[in-house]
Amino acid sequence: MVLLMKSKKIDTIINSIGNLPILPTIYMKLSRLLNTPDSSIKMISNIISEDQAIAAMVLKIVNSAAYGFYNKIGDLRHAIVILGLTEIKNMVLAASMYKIVKEFKSSSAFNMQEFWKHSTGCAILSRVLAETAYLKNPEDVFTGGLLHDIGKLIHAAYLCEEFNDVVANVVETGSQMSESEKKILGFDHAQTGGALAKKWNLPQETVNMIAHHHLSYMPDTLTKEIAAVHIGNSLCIALRMGSGGEKRVPIVNQKAWEILDLKLSDLEYVMQKSIKLFEESISIMEFE
Ligand SMILES: [Fe+2]
Ligand SMILES: [Fe+2]
Fold first, then answer.
1. How close is the Cα of 133 to the center of ligand 2, in Å?
2. Domain limits at 247?
3. What residues contact 114, with CB distance under 8 A and at least 6 apart?
């Protein structure tokens, strides 16, 4: 009964999300188009161009040091050819998320700039972990990492007062944010984020990466993708890449570590590479 009430509350919150300046109509259209076999570069670039701020951001990212292209890439079609569709789709998602977080800045006590950095850091670490562990879809893991804490945005926007209590409780007690949320709200941001991703019709694997990123209980199937985001999140907090409001580094789940089958020396490589990519990415996305 209690569980039913909680899931009802999450659904009520999620259903009011239509009011948010939210997710990426462009991203949705792009995903649909990429599943169509005869989609052309022109069609894809036209969709991205529908939002000039996002189009400009994609070009800015492509031309950043992180990609290391010698010649400047001046138009989207060229960028799509060079980077490929999955990479472009993820860039659109990152640019859209950035736009959303930036718009949220003034409406919440939660530090959005730090939150953005934490999301970016976790996305990068998760992707590099996925690459190092030879997962077949590191770009999808990047998406999971980027969106893993999106539930916090929903809480900050829709449950403002309670969320401020949660943030204060974390500071006071040193609890993990999800523990304070469960105590004060009855559910945590992983559950809200998972429900939101489902509403956005994101792939089930993305929903799972978001909903299970804490591994506070074991999902039916622990995938390597979930493990990568789980570890990426802990590393991101340990390395202080931004902040999602946590005061303690979450303990890495033993099973998640085992399933990725990495050596400690791999971890050193993952951290060094990610720190470099992180510094390059945030230097091109500054909040005023
Ligand atoms: Fe989280
Ligand atoms: Fe996080």
1. 21
2. 2-284
3. 242, 243, 244
Let me know if 172 is exposed, middle or buried by CB neighbors in 10 A (0-12, 13-18, 19+). exposed
First to last CA, the chain: 46
Which protein residues have their CB within 5 A of the ion that is ligand 2? 149, 233, 244
- Smallest-distance ligand from the CA of 215: 1
**What distance in angstroms lies between residue 262's CA and the mean position of ligand 2's atoms?**
21
Note whether 203 and 221 are within 8 A (CB): no
State the total domains in the chain.
1
Q: Are 181 and 165 in contact (CB under 8 A)?
A: no
Distance (Å) from CA 78 to ligand 2 centroid:
34
Residue 246 CA to ligand 1 center (angstroms) comes to 8
Name which of 24, 55, 54, 4 is nearest 196 in CA terms.
24
C-alpha dist (Å) from residue 39 to 44, 50, 57, 215: 7, 17, 23, 38
Write down the pLDDT at residue 37.
74
What pLDDT score was predicted for residue 180? 95
Residue with tokens 């890495």: 252
At residue 40's C-alpha, the angle toward residues 36 and 43, to 5°, is 95
**217 residue type, one letter:** Y
pTM for the complete prediction? 0.84
CA distance 71 to 217: 48
Phi and psi torsions of 252, nearest 5°:
-75, 130
Q: Give mean pLDDT, residues 279-285.
A: 75
- d(CA 22, CA 130) in angstroms, rounded, equals 28
Cα(252) to ligand 1 centroid in Å equals: 13
> The domain that contains 185 carries what CATH number?
1.10.3210.10
Tell me if 231 sits within 8 A of 102, measured CB to CB: no
